[in-house]
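In response to a reviewer's request, we include the raw inputs and outputs for one of the modeled complexes. The two entities were modeled together in a single run.
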Amino acid sequence: KQEVTQIPAALSVPEGENLVLNCSFTDSAIYNLQWFRQDPGKGLTSLLLIQSSQREQTSGRLNASLDKSSGRSTLYIAASQPGDSATYLCALGGSQGNLIFGKGTKLSVKP
Amino acid sequence: NAGVTQTPKFQVLKTGQSMTLQCAQDMNHNSMYWYRQDPGMGLRLIYYSASEGTTDKGEVPNGYNVSRLNKREFSLRLESAAPSQTSVYFCASSEQGIEQFFGPGTRLTVL
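The model returned the following structure tokens for the whole complex.
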């Protein structure tokens, strides 16, 4: 059974710092990996999608990487801002398109 | 485009009552999903519909039924609500293997 782990569970950084969020998974037979952002009391906003054949994707200050052989993905956030404060979720796509989620990393960026 | 919409936004039920959560998408996606989100458990798949006319169980289907009414709409029904079904429910849609989009969620409390 696929298991997804996100470490750390919570992270607090000063504004302007570059940071890395980690996601690890136990089964490398994945179709894709998606990173989401969730603000308190809100739904999920898709940030980046990496297909299983890809190694990384970039959008603005965000860069996500995928290493299936080691069962790891990272989300790199450059020059963090207070507006980046949210919970970040990693999810692995299965053969039916369903997603298996990690429990998230709660990020707080201090002004 | 509205994306994925869910109704109602909030609901309080008494144990044993029934209700239907509604979901609609306007992106012409074939696949739709229902997840629940609980503190400490992350998001878990309840049911999904890979295409119009098909539905399948996810990780936590007990106590729920679903209907794929047409390509746009996918409803989730609680026949006899229990306190363990207190949760936030999210509907999502996608094309298989492609980015998944989420609705704003329904916050359900069962007393």
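As requested, we also summarize the result in words. The mean pLDDT of chain A is 94. Chain A touches chain B through 23 residues (CB under 8 Å).
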